[in-house]
Design a protein that fits this description.
439 residues; alpha+beta; PmbA/TldD fold; 6-stranded antiparallel sheet; 5-stranded mixed barrel; 9 helices; 36% strand
Length: 439
Amino acid sequence: MSKTNYLSLAENLVKQGKKQGAQVKVSINNGKSFELGIRNGEVEELQESNSLNLSLLVNVDNRTASASTSDLSEAALEQLLKNALERAKHSSVDESAIFPEFEKLDIDIEKLNLYSSDINTVSPEERIKLAIELERLCLKDKRISLSAGSGYSTYEGEYYLALSNGFSGSYKSSNCSIGVYLQSGSDSSATQEGWYDSARSPLNLMSIEEIAKIAIERATRLQNAKKIPTQTVPIIVDRYIAPAITGFLLECLVGRNIYMQESVFAGKLNEKIANSNITLFDNPLIVGGPASRPFDSEGVPARKNMIIEKGILKNYLLNTYSAKKLGLKNNGFASGTSNVILENGEHTEEDLIKSVDKGLLLLKTLGQGTTTTSGDFSKGAYGIWIENGELSYPVSEITISGNIVNMLKDIEMLADNADEKRSQQIPTFKFAEMTVSGE
């Protein structure tokens, strides 16, 4: 993408800071994006943009300051460093504010397939045609009352990182996506849903016919929903809404929440917190994975991290600061999670449904309703009621509630259908019981 040697620029800025007695981290993001929005057959949004940003972190005797700029001229960077060093002198001393120890990057970045040279093989004109046709295919179905829009987007970027501990590295990445959002019904009976697909290369995207079929099914499946009384029943969690639950679990395991004692799992490392059928891990080294990376934003090389193994909590999600606070080893989560995988079970989704005499297939949740300190979970929900092992009718205006401590222990069945194209690859699973609040 760029002829400028941004890695050398980052390394030189680090050297300048080190000469002035500071530890320094410099990162540069150079990206190009394309955004297209279609509604009712017309182009509603068409934007192509370039972004370039440099972020700087300095540490002088455990006093830190940060700064950023999009002006990468020599004079601007010299002033940026000067200002940051001056501000660091006036910040508070924090003994946990340290840089990571250097670790050699022994990863073949090219083999990770994070970037596809095919990213621009579909021209802007073809993208417009695809998005228009996708919407048209959906609107042919008489159950669809309107389109909230279809879209096509691409991104290609370069990331450069240099630290005063000796780390220096860079990589390119690409992503593209196409999708549509629809409404079925009207007024109080209206339901909105859609579908999208994403990939590193446009050659790996689903066809618009496949996307339209799924989007229509999702937009219409909750039509004519009924209300149900409050009760405690088994709940089957659809694989695409499951990240609402695993995402809350991961939030509870973030290092900051642990050392601040704002997590129900503080002090639970190496203890059993889930059913023995639960093995959850983070793997940033999946070839072509949607969230793969060779290193995190602190230059810590990527590695597979077991989070829960057969029900046992094995790791918190730590960066250098939180690891120091907790007296643990940094395990490379400065950039957050990557490809989060809950190991598949041995059942089909149909097996899970057949196992329920009376219960809920959870398809959609609304609102926040989570508290890491207590582990309480409560969200508005929609789904399909199950009677005698069969899907019966859609339900709405309900709330599901529980506590993550009990919820993890109550996962009694897992399907074998995790979607490998998602950054959270979670199969459909079944809770033995949860409270469903209705009428």
